[in-house]
Prior knowledge:
Chain A is of the alpha+beta class. Chain A is built from five helices and four strands; from the N terminus they run ααβαβαβαβ.
Amino acid sequence: xxxxxxxxxxxxxxxxxxxxxxxxxxxxxxxxxxxxxxxxxxxxxxxxxxxxxxxxxxxxxxxxxxxxxxxxxxxxxxxxxxxxxxxxxxxxxxxxxxxxxxxxxxxxxxxxxxxxxxxxxxxxxxxxxxxxxxxxxxxxxxxxxxxxxxxxxxxxxxxxxxxxxxxxxxxxxxxxx
Amino acid sequence: xxxxxxxxxxxxxxxxxxxxxxxxxxxxxxxxxxxxxxxxxxxxxxxxxxxxxxxxxxxxxxxxxxxxxxxxxxxxxxxxxxxxxxxxxxxxxxxxxxxxxxxxxxxxxxxxxxxxxxxxxxxxxxxxxxxxxxxxxxxxxxxxxxxxxxxxxxxxxxxxxxxxxxxxxxxxxxxxxxxxxxxxxxxxxxxxxxxxxxxxxxxxxxxxxxxxxxxxxxxxxxxxxxxxxxxxxxxxxxxxxxxxxxxxxxxxxxxxxxxxxxxxxxxxxxxxxxxxxxxxxxxxxxxxxxxxxxxxxxxxxxxxxxxxxxxxxxxxxxxxxxxxxxxxxxxxxxxxxxxxxxxxxxxxxxxxxxxxxxxxxxxxxxxxxxxxxxxxxxxxxxxxxxxxxxxxxxxxxxxxxxxxxxxxxxxxxxxxxxxxxxxxxxxxxxxxx
Lengths: 177, 433
């Protein structure tokens, strides 16, 4: 399974890169901080795996970090994580797995169509999808809280496909202490 | 509760003496009428200070009767004469206009903010007076007296109980500054006199009347997760009923008021439970890995209908109130959800999705026939009137949510447009509210 391969690479790379920190904002566990540029040749590993190792060092406040993107979108009436979002999910999972004291809330949402309470259940199902993907990568259950708002908290107003697409989502909300 | 939270959730007590706030109401007749009783409702006479009575009683009656789909009131400009008492009625004048019935009346001021409202109902064909009553009323009671008169007329001419002197509860969202405010309101069933019973900075949803009309259960996100509360409407007293892990949703009162059916996902995925309101004991009714939600009690208290996608897409199922095998009820179309029972237990209104449009449909449980009643794209949250004659629901008008009512035979549809904010999830009260 794709997710398991990613996990394998993540673990492998974490082991290899234990001493590296890319921004120096946060320390990795105990190892000396070196300036180790991945460069274009970093592409010999899958980019996801390479990224995951360095994310342990990224600040959550860095707008250039892939972790800055915190919304995952879904197809109509579906709770399946799309291929184009697998990387993002994996990146967040790796960060959380490496920072087991960090908690997140996964907020599930739907577009406005259909019955409101059924949409609460559908939003919950989407958030559960992301939770499962996280837990497969080593995020601990106690790090994750789930809330579904169904259609109640639209991100985009309007009755168009464009608005609906932006509302079918899970938001990853990092909790501060 | 912290101060911040108290500011976020402000409960306004529904006082019996609250000044009525008239919502700017637009009633748009969106569909014609066939087979309805032609009736003339003459503007009531006025005896008092000021140019006119404080409420147009005849207009309220006329609007009520037409909204039921059973009556076709004559437009005001077609009225040839304006009698206000029996002696002034000339039957041949009204026979020419082809009306079956005539309503006349008058309002007299009897003191400061005190009135007497009198009305009489005539059978034009037979040339007789059918009923006549006189009511004392304070200023704030005039609209409800008008609705009561509508009920009396309706009962006299159709043989069925009228549901005009009833109320609705609904959710409204408005923007205040940059953020949203969510309110729960109770209004007359024509949309007038809305009164806020709860205000919150976080979403409110799924209001449900108790059978005695004294309490409302609802879902609130005020604590950043879904929780179910019940609230006494007269006093505003709230009680937290369910705050389990995961979803707490879709409360529905049993007819005897002793239990609530609800949706909980604490055991892994959304399932139907019933809870004894007094002891808080839970009983689980579904054990299926699919979504099971939106329970609604049958009026005889013996079964619960709910939405499940165990068959691949949302459909309605029925299970005995004490548990057992669920039986599928809907087979038309790929989306049937959000059910409400008719008061006689023989029909279900629902949200029916077909070819990209979500409409209100009614399933006859005896025949299995499904009839689509509306033609919007985003219709939802149907609720039967307590006499089973009308269904109120939420629809969209441009960029706002509005309420509409449709007669159960689908003949007559009317929009109730409250011109303030986004209105949704209407639920009709029981009788005697």
